[in-house]
Amino acid sequence: MTATLDAPLLVPVPESGAGRPPKRPAGSGRGIRARLQQVLRQPTLVLSIGVLLLVTLWALAPTWFTAWDPIEGVARDRLQPPSATHLFGTDNLGRDLFARVVHGSATSLAATTVAVIVGLTVGSFFGLLAGFLRGFVDDAIMRFMDVLLAIPSLLLSLALITALGFGTLNVAIAVGLASVASFSRVMRAEVLQVATAVYVEAARVSGVRWYTILRRHVLPNASGPVVALAALEFGVMVLAISSLSFLGFGAPPPTPEWGSLVSGGRDYLAVAWWLTTLPGLVIVAVVLSANRISRALERNGGTR
């Protein structure tokens, strides 16, 4: 009995990979299915995604949705109400309004995308520097951002357009620069929170270079709320660009653009309500959809 107790306990060691359950790769189908089910349980979110996908398809392949020419009109068809032939009716020159809205989505969405990229890139850069370097750099950058926030964004956009000149691209750049302060403040707040984390301090103590810490640790973990803000600003910038186009600062006629379409129908409100109402409803649908997606991203922590 004693010999049995004193004998060494021999446990066979399995060979490499033998007897072990296979590892499930990170981000596998189970996580994707769970997120998809979570999205499908929110009808308004599904509808919002569907609206933005539809408008994106309008911009990428307008001929899939309409065969009418957005520039050439038929004089005898002028100011016809919505019907099976002309879904959104026709304008004062006999042009199909639905075709002009569909073809105009490319210009409006491209300008909005450029504006979001400009605001996100420039604002995140300054916010990242302010939150990570702190001190004098932080004070100087944030005082400048406070000045920008004190100026109404539409007024600031108009001032920038005056300096840059008219045109869709200049309007997009001006609207993007007017939103830099919002992106910068959100990025700075997130960087200040992430920069005090244990793993960031450990990287500093280990002698990792500061720009490597920014790229590997701070930026990926601080980008979630900024992405949610970008989705929210997308809707705001659609409104801003449409407003500037309404005022005549966007693409010159006869190029279709959402804001200019609303502006072109204001003289016919008494006899042709669809000229302003239907393009306006498209703008409203896109803005509300972007806001709904932004709330979903913010609730889920952005891309964290």
> How much of the sequence is in beta strands?
under 5%
Any idea what the radius of gyration is?
A: 27 Å
Form type: elongated
Give the averaged pLDDT, no decimals. 82
How does the helix and strand content classify structurally? mainly alpha
Largest sheet: none
Helix content: 55-70%
Number of strands: 0
**Low-confidence runs:** 1-28
By DSSP (H or I, 4+ residues per run), the number of helices equals 13
Distance between the termini: 60 Å
- Please provide the ordered H/E string of secondary-structure elements: HHHHHHHHHHHHH
Describe, in plain words, how this protein is organized in 3D.
The protein is 67% helix and 0% strand. The chain has 13 helices and no strands. Helix 3 (43-60) packs across helix 4 (97-133), helix 5 runs antiparallel to helix 8 (180-194) and helix 8 crosses helix 10.
What would you say about this model in short?
The protein is mainly α and 304 residues long. The protein contains 13 helices and no strands.
Write a concise keyword list for the protein shown above.
disordered N terminus; single chain; 304 residues; mainly alpha
Write the SSE topology:
Blueprint: H1 2-6, H2 29-40, H3 43-60, H4 97-133, H5 135-150, H6 153-164, H7 168-178, H8 180-194, H9 198-205, H10 210-222, H11 224-246, H12 258-264, H13 274-299
Helix pairs in contact: 3-4, 3-13, 4-5, 4-7, 4-8, 4-11, 5-8, 6-7, 7-11, 8-10, 8-11, 9-10, 11-12, 11-13, 12-13
